[in-house]
Amino acid sequence: xxxxxxxxxxxxxxxxxxxxxxxxxxxxxxxxxxxxxxxxxxxxxxxxxxxxxxxxxxxxxxxxxxxxxxxxxxxxxxxxxxxxxxxxxxxxxxxxxxxxxxxxxxxxxxxxxxxxxxxxxxxxxxxxxxxxxxxxxxxxxxxxxxxxxxxxxxxxxxxxxxxxxxxxxxxxxxxxxxxxxxxxxxxxxxxxxxxxxxxxxxxxxxxxxxxxxxxxxxxxxxxxxxxxxxxxxxxxxxxxxxxxxxxxxxxxxxxxxxxxxxxxxxxxxxxxxxxxxxxxxxxxxxxxxxxxxxxxx
Length: 297
Prior knowledge:
The protein is of the alpha/beta class.
C-alpha cells in the first residue's frame, strides 16, 4: 500500500468526530448510538480507532458515565465548531442558500436587553429555529462549557477569556424601590443605608449579584438578602408588594415595573452586559448572522 492510500485509510473522519462528541455530550456510548442512529459497537469502534491512532486516552469511564479526558477537553470547542460548520455546508447545499433552516440556542440573563435582539433576528431569519432560555450568567457560562448553547447574554466586568463577544450596554447597579419609598427622594444611598434594608436579589449565580456583593465586601457592608429569586419580574412583583427593595441593573428597570432606580454611592457598581459566543463558532452561519443582526437595532 502506498503512502497516499495509507494516509487516506487513517484520515481523521467526521463520522469519528461525531461519535466522539456525542458520547461526551450524552455521557454514554448507548445514548450516542441512539442519537446518531447506529449500533453501540460502531460508536465504540470509532472512539477506539481514534485512541489507537493517536495513542491518547480520550474518554474516561466512571461507573455508567463517560466523560472527556483532559486531552480531549481542550479540543471539544474546535470539534463542535467543525461539526457545526459541516452542518452549515450540508444545509446550504441542500437548500441552495445559507440559513434556509437550522437552529440557534440562546441563553439570556436579562430579558429586557436580550428579547428585542432575539425578536429582531427571528423576524429577519424566520426559518431558523430559536431555543431561548432565561438563566443566570454563571449557568449560561456552564452551558457554553458543555457545548449546549450558541449565544449568551451575560452580565459581568469583562468577557470570559474562553469566549468572544461584544458589549451590549454599560449600566449602573442600583436599588429598585417603589416610588413612595423613603429613600426614593435621596439622590444617592450609602452602604450604611443599604445595611438597614431588606434586599431582594437574583440567585447566587447572577452576574449582577456577584458584582454587587463583591463591592459590598470591599465597602465592609453585609447586605441582608431576605429572598433570592430567579427573575427580575418576580423581584419587581415583590417590591410592589412591599416585601423589600431590589438590586438590579438600571437598564432593566422599566416604567411598567412600578419601581424607581436609586443610585448607590459607589463608582465600582457598574455592570457590563455582553453578547458572547464560542470563539471557534464565530464563523458558523447562524452565529455569524446573529452577530451581524446586533447592529441593526
